[in-house]
Amino acid sequence: MKTDKTTVMMMIGRLSPNPLNFYKSTDEDKLGMAESVREHGVVNPIIIKPDKDKLDNYIIISGHLRHIGSVMAGLTEVPCIIEEYETEEEELNALLIGNEYRTKTKFEIASEMNARKRIWAKGQGERSDLYSPEGERPLSTRARLALRFKMAEAQVGKYEHIFDTRPSLYKYIDSGNMSIDGANNLLRFLDTQAISEPNDVRMQEAVVELRAPKQLEKVRQNKLVLEEVFFHVVKGLANMNKPKTRQESQPSNDEKELAKKVVKPEKTNTPAPDEESDEKDEDNKESEEAPETENHKEPEEEDARTFVCTTARCECYGMTLRIMEEEDENINEEDSQE
Q1: Cα–Cα distance between 213 and 119 in angstroms, integer?
Q2: Cα–Cα distance for residue pair 335/338, rounded to 1 Å
């Protein structure tokens, strides 16, 4: 790569966007950059390279948003630095470095993964020894991507699968209508059903026809919108192939296998002792072992009562007598007769 660090003023009309650039800016970003350029001008020069197909024209390497903001601000010239690259991979690497710290969409992340694989395959860009200490086996490309983008290797595989199979799904992912997992499961479903329609509308009709044929009839009657029905179906497909979470109360498969090997004791009808029954038994033992007291009554005397004779002519006058309840009526009759 040859670089002329000298900053030159370049006519905006001589600059063209890079066809390798897959980064996109929102309208809000463009308006913000235009306002910044009007107030402060272009602070950082735009990196450009000579256009081999157009004489005296240049292709932007880094600074696409600054270029758009300058056009919106009404500038005619912008500061630039001219660089030359020997290979396309070297140019692509410079493009990635220029957008290192920007906020990226899911499509831009997938595109950057694909670009880095291409760069690493040519032995350019980041050194592979940064990912594997000396003496250890170098990491695979997917493992390097996982470290680079701070995600699991399985998630990197999903990004790659969608990008390589049907990159148009990323517009639904970035719009929030579909997740990475949902798109990945959708592609698996399309493979099982042998659906390979390149037209997204036809693909949507095919999926809805298989999963919700009655809804497709309403779509054809203009009662429903195809995309809305399709996204509703895809949300159901997003739950496919996901492992079910085991509740804490449910044993795992390993626990079930272990339980089969353990010999269980035979069940008996004897109820398990509890604390209350133990307390009752102790109370009963104490009552049985307790000595008889003066207040203790014999079973046959439970129905007896005492009274003092008040009949003056009676021989037992003034004496305390004990009689049974059933004899009480006879005594009362005698008293009344006397």
Answers
A1: 46
A2: 5
What value does the CA radius of gyration of the chain take, rounded to a whole number of Å?
46
For residue 48, list its beta bridge partners: 60, 82
User: pLDDT digits over 7-55, tens only?
Assistant: 999 999 999 999 999 999 999 999 999 999 999 999 999 999 999 988 8
Considering only CA atoms, which of 28, 48, 52, 32 is closest in space to residue 40? 32
pLDDT of the residue at 71: 95
- Please state, in angstroms and rounded to a whole number, the distance separating the CA atoms of residues 160 and 167: 9
Tokens of 312: 């003056």
Containing 153, the helix (H) or strand (E) segment is helix 153-165
DSSP 8-state assignment for residue 219 = H
SS3 2: strand
Cα angle for residues 37, 42, 43 (degrees, 5° grid): 120
Sign of CA dihedral 38, 41, 44, 45: positive
